Amino acid sequence: MQYKKYEGGIYSETDCTSHGVLVVGYGKEDSQDYWLIKNFWGEEGYFRMARNVGMCGINLINTYPYL
Known about the structure:
Belongs to the peptidase C1 family. By secondary structure, this protein is mostly beta strands. Helices cover 0% and strands 40% of the residues. A 4-stranded mixed beta sheet has the order 1-4-3-2, with no helix packed on it.
């Protein structure tokens, strides 16, 4: 699991496992879209993962709050 070695940047490896994450935002850097994920390692408690490329099944099952 390479993401355990993540120290910064936009993660775009294909070696990942399936587990729940809290996506708190999204953005773009140098033409690369990314999800901003709350985490306990990485960039001051956040993790950036490539967006719109089907990374790690992040788009397969999701939930969101609504009123």
